[in-house]
Structure formats: C-alpha cells, structure tokens
Write a structure and sequence with these properties.
mainly alpha
C-alpha cells in the first residue's frame, strides 16, 4: 500500500512535468504521454482507494489525509473525462499539478483513521462523499478554466499575441467548457447535499442541524445558483462567469478547510488529523 501510494504520487508529478513541457513546446506526443501517465496514476489511485475500502470495511474519508487523497483522485478523474469530452488538452497544466500536490500533502499528513464504526460504514455516507468530491472537482477545474479565460482575455485586449495567446484555447471554448463544469458540479453538489440531508436524518434524527459545515456548504451552493441564474436570465458569460467560478471555488475551499480548522461542528470531526 505504501509503495503503491508513492508510485501514484510519482505518476501524478511526472504527468505534471509532461504537461508543462507540452505547454511550452506544444508537442502533441508529449501531451499524449502526459495524459497516459495521468490515466495510469488515476487507475492505480483507484486501486489504492479500493484496497483501503476493503481493508477498513468503510469508505476511506475518515481524516484529512484520506479526504485529500479522495480530492486528488476526483480531480484527476474529472479532468480525464473532461479531456475526452472537450479535448481541452491545455487544462492538464492545471489539473495534473493540482492532483499531484494534493496527493503529496495527503501523504505527508498523519494518517491515523478512526475505528470504522457504523457511522463510517453507511452506504449513504459513501454516496454522499463520492458525489460531493466529484462535484467539487468539477468546480476546481471550472476555477482553472476561469483563470485561463482571464489570462487569454487580457492577452487579446492588450493585443499582445504572444506566449499565452498562442497556447490557450479560444475564449468561446474556455467559456463553454467552464460552463459545462459548473453545470455538472452544481448537479453533483445538489445531489450530494440531498443525500447528506437524508444521511443526517438517519444518524442524528434531523435533516438540518445548523452545523457550520452545512451552512457553508449551502452558502457555496448559493454562489453557483447565482452564477447559473445570471447566466440564464441576464446572459452572464465570459469575464463575469470566470470571476464567479473563481469566487465559488474559494467559498468551497473555505468550506473544506476553514470550517474544519476555524469553526466547530460535527463534520469537522471526520476530517481533522
């Protein structure tokens, strides 16, 4: 398990290097190699998570180390699907390092999971965690696409058709792909919250308890509600949508990290060291 974990991290970092080389030199063979290495790392990572699931008889999201590992896995998996659907190759320069660094931090943190009590063995909890993390991975990629959009827009407006302009996709492709990520992420986050409410009712006897994680999850959800509403009714596209995607992901990061370390609640107990 240890060496499988190390090998997965090395593959993610190797993919990051290959995507960086591709970004600078634009060699398709290098991009294909980066994709293949990332896919291999993702498959090994899936085996790692599956083995942890079988060993503990519970979904491996019982502390911060494990949840970061799941986050890295979700980012890699969603990017691979996105790359297949939209052929947005350059996004690998963002997704691969994000997965690699997240996985490395996960490995460096203490990994002393709590005993796999009934609370962790619930099927509802497993479904809730998987859906939430896949949704958040989609939002993470939407954030990266938003950053690319702002960089490309600046290059076009400044009429400096240089390094970034030649390497980043068109604004239309970035906008449409970012929107697709937001829609998918929103659907998954909504489903995850619903499953979480059902799970909370079965464990604590109530759907809503004003837990800080619940409150901030809904706040993050409302940010994306606002973005989708404005896009459908007012026609928010381009720069505004890119900025909102970045702000929305910032809210998610605070929900994931800030709530656990700065605020108190029963969710925080599951993701601390």
């Amino acid at each position: 398990m240890y060496w499988l974990n190390v090998f997965t991290i090395l593959l993610y970092f190797l993919s990051s290097v290959l995507y960086a080389v591709y970004f600078f030199f634009q060699k398709k063979a290098v991009q294909r190699a980066g994709y293949a290495v990332l896919l291999t790392g993702f498959l090994l990572h899936s085996v790692l998570i599956g083995a942890a699931l079988v060993t503990a008889q519970a979904f491996p999201a019982r502390n911060l180390s494990e949840t970061l590992s799941i986050s890295a896995w979700a980012v890699a998996g969603v990017f691979l699907l996105l790359r297949y659907k939209f052929d947005l190759r350059v996004l690998g320069i963002y997704a691969a390092p994000l997965a690699a660094v997240t996985m490395l931090v996960s490995a460096l943190l203490p990994n002393q999971p709590r005993e796999a009590v009934t609370l962790f063995k619930s099927l509802w909890l497993t479904i809730h965690v998987i859906i939430i993390f896949l949704g958040e991975a989609a939002f993470a990629l939407a954030c990266g696409i938003g950053i690319f959009y702002l960089i490309q827009e600046h290059a076009i407006k400044s009429k400096r058709h240089g390094f970034f302009y030649k390497r980043l996709p068109s604004l239309d492709l970035l906008d449409s792909t970012g929107y697709a990520c937001i829609v998918v992420g929103f659907i998954l986050l909504t489903m995850g919250l619903i499953v979480g409410f059902v799970y909370a009712e079965s464990v604590w006897g109530r759907f809503w308890s004003w837990d800080t994680k619940e409150v901030w999850s809904v706040i993050s959800w409302l940010v994306y509600v606002a973005l989708l509403h404005q896009r459908m009714t007012v026609g928010w596209r381009g720069r505004r949508a890119a900025i909102m995607a970045i702000i929305g992901f910032g809210a998610l990061l605070f929900t994931f990290f800030g709530v656990n370390f700065l605020l108190k609640g029963h969710h925080g107990d599951f993701t601390k060291f």
